[in-house]
Amino acid sequence: MWLLYAFAYNFLFLQDNMYYRRKILLALLSFFGGKLTAKQLQKYLFLFTRQQDTKSFDFVPYHYGCFSFQANQDISTLTKYGYCQITETKDGRFYELIKDEDFINTLKPEDKQKLIDTKDKFGKLTQTELIRHTYRNYPYYAIKSDIAKSLLNSSELEIIEQQKRHYSEKQLFSIGYEGISLETYINKLIINDVHVLCDVRKNAYSQKYGFSKKTLELACKGTNIEYIHIPDLGIVSDKRQELNTLADYDALFNEYKQTTLIDNNKSILYIRDLLDKYKRVALTCFEKDPKQCHRTCVANSLMQLPNADYGLKIL
């Protein structure tokens, strides 16, 4: 009996405190008859967010076009709590509502209208037509597609090709994920034609969705970026406590340069080898401000190596 009460309490709590973006997903499924393929849901959601001034979800170019990692994760969470289910069939992956509730009227009036407009404009398209529409009208999101060649003509494919970024010069980058979504982060790497992401955290774990090692590695793999974790160049979390002033950071980084960087010079040389081989390499850690992150010490060490034939760019 106690477990039943606990389940009921948790369910009601989740309903009342559900992230608004998850209500959008449930309402979207409801609008389209309670069942969509994974590709349909991503495309309809993308077209819906194009109408929003502040977008509920960000997207990246992926194997089948526009894709939101956050939406995919949210669907998994909603499945866990019994709002919908995921089924695999010979025709693909489907998301299906289980709860028969009025999710539509949980939305803001303006978002409800945008969903109505999305269904009116695109609801009669087949899945293939829907994908083709997003490729033609938003070609950047088709640059990583595995199926574009089978859906588009040569002139349309050329437009997509023009969206791709190709740079021949060597370049070292520095990027932090503080304050941005996984999608925004990955898009920064794609736009700058980054080939390798070097994670210089000691422990590649984050409470922020998308930035723990496994998830970040999968996101990179899906966009043709190689992910490499180099924990030797990290700082143990105990030493990052009580950093309240610039002097605190200066003391930490001075110690870091005199110990960790010297003791692990082989890792610096390894990154230099990656630059020679792959040309476009990014260093990453949490902090947005590079002055508050040890990755700047790593970057400076690389810039000070003999014959450093590359520049440094902060993303």
Task: List unreliable stretches of 5+ residues.
Answer: 1-16
- Judged by helices, strands and strand pairing, the structural class is alpha/beta
Helix content: 40-55%
- Rg over CA atoms: 23 Å
**What oligomeric state is this?**
single chain
Q: Helix tally? A: 14
Shape designation: globular
Structure description:
This protein has 315 residues and is an alpha/beta fold. The protein has 2 domains: 2-161, no CATH class; 171-314. It has 14 helices and 10 strands. The strands form 3 sheets. A 5-stranded parallel beta sheet has the order 8-7-9-6-10, sandwiched between helices. A 3-stranded antiparallel beta sheet has the order 1-5-4. A two-stranded antiparallel ribbon has the order 2-3. A hairpin with a 2-residue loop joins strand 4 (84-89) and strand 5. Helix 2 (20-31) packs parallel to helix 5 (109-122) and helix 3 (38-49) packs parallel to helix 6 (127-137). The longest helix has 16 residues, at 2-17. It is globular and about 65 Å long.
Short description:
It is built from 14 helices and ten strands. By secondary structure, the chain is of the alpha/beta class.
